[in-house]
Amino acid sequence: MDSNEQHHPLDKATELFRKFNIYYGRTSKRYANMVRQYGGITASTILKSIIQHPKCIGEPISLTINYAAPVLAGNLSIQSTPIRTNRSTQHWFVEMFQNKEVVITGTAVFSNRRETWSSLEAKFPNVPSEEYIKPIQFGEMPPWLDNYDIRIIKGIPKMFSASSSDNPSDSITVQWMKDNPKRNIDFISLTAMCDAFFPRIYVKRNALVPIGTVSLTIYFHTDSKVLEKHGDKEVLGYARAFQFYNGYFDQTAELWTPEGQLLATTSQIVYYKE
């Protein structure tokens, strides 16, 4: 990481120091959400605690974060434990604490990928290039949105765009996005971007409904070599829900390079209140 990235808001927000096998950090006002820290930055901080661990082997292939309680403004601590290291995978269990109480639990799997037969089944969406889409101006929205240049092709809630003509019959959103200011992508920033979508219920109902992510899972379909080649270019995100049912809905998403390489897929289960 170069000196410019070390001073990027994302890196400051996920900064950790280690003492007696515990990582310590603090939430960032820049990544605040409505009543808690932005969930994507929480997931990135959890992942960073593993990547920086002296026993870490390989690169992430999956990450699951369970939001047991809101991550409120203030200090936090993380305990990352390698549960088992096999020939091809390394398994981790993670807990985040605030005021001596668990607020996040998580698991992760790391691996040293080897070159072998590969095939892409998913199809890259047919969309206009980023340069043809205007960035969204969020106004009085939560601070974390200012950290992204988001250009929505389809699926912006009408409450955020008076000119929106989208039909809310589905919950699909397609958007270009990148860090603001620009930053070379890596697993930390990719993790945060996996949560950089409006909640699907906002799109489906065109209303600000109280929500909270309960659990988020990310599958990484790339490695550091691909991410280094990608640099600070935009990423295409495609998000949708399958069902809204009795207080919970799912949100699934794909993240792509402009050249059509799949970087990650993600899913989460989200609580909503009538």
UniProtKB/TrEMBL annotation:
It comes from the Bacteria. Residues 138-271 form the Acyl-CoA thioesterase-like C-terminal domain. Residues 36-110 form the Acyl-CoA thioesterase-like N-terminal HotDog domain. Coiled coil: none annotated. InterPro entries: ACOT8-like_C, Acyl-CoA_hotdog, HotDog_dom_sf, TesB_ACOT8-like_N. It holds the Pfam family 4HBT_3C. This is Thioesterase family protein. It comes from Staphylococcus nepalensis.
